[in-house]
Amino acid sequence: MSIKANAVVAIHYAVKDEEGAQLDSSEGKEPLTYLHGANNIIPGLEKALEGKAEGDQVEVTVAPEEGYGEHREELVEAVPREAFGDVDQLEPGMRFQAQTDKGPVSVVVTDVQEDTVTVDGNHPLAGKSLNFSVKVDSVRDATEEEISHGHVHGPEGQEH
Known about the structure:
The chain is mainly beta. Helices cover 8% and strands 39% of the residues. The protein has two helices and nine strands; from the N terminus they run E-E-E-H-E-E-E-E-E-E-H.
């Protein structure tokens, strides 16, 4: 069976950044299982897997616009220190949920000054090309329930 919309796909993968540093891998773990065509994985990887079958191997470089997007400067903002309430020790690298008019946004602290804290709302991999090495483990038709829910269910049914 070929990978197409509404197929449940299980893959083993490794992903490296532009410098060749490994960012993530399924080695030693269960394969990543997703519903193809439901935006469960980044678009560039999903496009590269379209039409592949069990046992196929794929090497693909995914550009930022097909991955986690370009780095957007408007998502980097200096906010007043008091916006962090009773958090005593703020350090670069700390993550917070910010409430915005568009809903909650995950931000990371990038700089701490006496009166301001700079936060970045970009995904950590925004602006980066990603190099994937993928092996298709299995492909099957999704159930009607999986299709209607937009994601894969486990062997015992719905797991959410």
